[in-house]
Design goal:
By secondary structure, the protein is of the alpha/beta class. The chain has ten helices and ten strands. The strands form two sheets. Strands 3-2-1-4-5 form a five-stranded mixed beta sheet, sandwiched between helices. The longest helix has 30 residues. The chain binds adenosine-5'-triphosphate, magnesium ion and fe (iii) ion. Its EC number is 2.3.1.234.
């Protein structure tokens, strides 16, 4: 079965073609990062308009690259939520329109289920069950995954998401949006010994996260340096490094606890922050120590993409799930635990 996947939940237009026998056939992405950069964050109305402009040409490109005509498709999957409602509606209405015209089944996919299953597109995919750490721009969650749609929330952030914390730290350091990669680049030149930033909520049991205290600590440090006229390039790099170490360490401590609590030995890390090299090194050490294994998506499938939506949609379509014809879904808030086994 050949499934076209469409992702438009935020600021990337992603399209991909997944074949349940042959795997991923093609994928393409248009990122709106440059467009939103001058505003320092995503402007919802601009996002929707840009998805409208980019989506059809991107679909054509993916079909051309795979050498497949529209008539060769078997189903269409799109991101139904969570996300920006106007942006979601562009993907949802396009998917439903195409499905109607081509007389195909169509299915709305949960964006975080897409992220969570993205490592399944790699050569050595994780087997169920596993613990998933979802770390993206809007989510920081630990989930026990027993199978597709079988998700038990173990813990989550009580305030900012990890990606959001990176983006805010970047702003404090006058770095460009999106902040994650920029902070990581600056941190590479930083001295890890200069400061030890707080590891929030690691001093008590539990699997929840909090990043607002770390954010305040980062801001206070920057202000003090600035007042002392000591905020030079090295100091900025040292702050970035101390911040990155604190996030990576906090996430690793909670992952270790989640593996302990569930007795599982496979860890999946997905979402934009899973691209972070320091976090990967830290998690590799943590899992190696206990004979566990860690799995990630390839770099470009850590952030939003069409491939993860095509894959997640294909699994559910194979199980017989589909939208009612003419009833597109665009759900801005949608907890992952509400999903069911197909
Ligand atoms: P959600 O998936 O929760 O709806 P989103 O789709 O906006 O949110 P993603 O596209 O998965 O999030 O990830 C984007 C986030 O990942 C941004 O906050 C960005 O700063 C962060 N990020 C990307 N690369 C890195 C990196 N190398 N290090 C740290 N953070 C990163
Ligand atoms: Mg994005
Ligand atoms: Fe995302």
């Amino acid at each position: 079965m050949r499934v076209l996947g469409i992702e438009t939940s935020c600021d990337e237009t992603g399209v991909a073609l997944f074949d349940t026998e042959q795997g991923l056939l093609s994928d393409a992405l248009h990122s709106q990062v440059a467009m939103h950069a001058e505003y320092g964050g995503v402007v919802p109305e601009l996002a929707s308009r840009d998805h409208t402009r980019r989506l059809l040409p991107l679909i054509q490109r993916v079909l051309d690259e795979a050498g497949i005509r529209r008539q060769g498709l078997d189903a269409i999957a799109y991101t139904a939520g969570p996300g920006l409602v106007g942006a979601l509606m562009v993907g949802a209405s396009t998917a439903h329109g195409m499905a109607r015209a081509l007389d195909l089944p169509v299915l709305g996919v949960h964006h975080m289920e897409g992220h969570l299953l993205a490592p399944m597109l790699e050569d050595n995919p994780p087997a169920f069950p596993f613990v998933a750490l979802l770390v993206s721009g809007g989510h920081t969650q630990l989930v026990e995954v027993s199978g597709i749609g079988q998700y038990r929330l173990l813990g989550e952030s009580v305030d900012d998401a990890a990606g959001e914390a990176f983006d805010k730290a970047a702003k404090m350091l006058d770095l460009d949006y999106p902040g994650g990669p920029a902070v990581a680049r600056l941190a590479a030149a930083g001295d890890p010994q200069r400061w030890r930033f707080p590891r929030p909520m690691t001093d008590r049991p539990g699997l929840d996260f909090s990043f607002s205290g770390l954010k305040t600590h980062t801001l206070t440090t920057i202000r003090q340096l600035d007042q002392q006229d000591a905020l030079d390039e090295q100091a900025r790099a040292d702050v970035a490094r101390a911040f990155e170490e604190a996030v990576a360490d906090t996430l690793a401590i909670k992952c270790r606890r989640a593996l302990d609590a569930t007795g599982l030995s496979r860890l999946v890390v997905a979402g934009g922050v899973s691209a972070n090299q320091r976090l990967r090194e830290r998690l590799e050490r943590e899992t190696a120590k206990r004979g566990a294994e860690v799995f990630y998506p390839r770099g470009r499938f850590c952030t939003d993409n069409g491939a993860m939506i095509a894959y997640a949609g294909a699994q559910r379509l194979l199980a017989g799930e589909r939208d009612v014809i003419g009833r597109m879904q665009a759900v801005p808030r949608w907890p992952l635990e509400q999903l069911r086994q197909p």
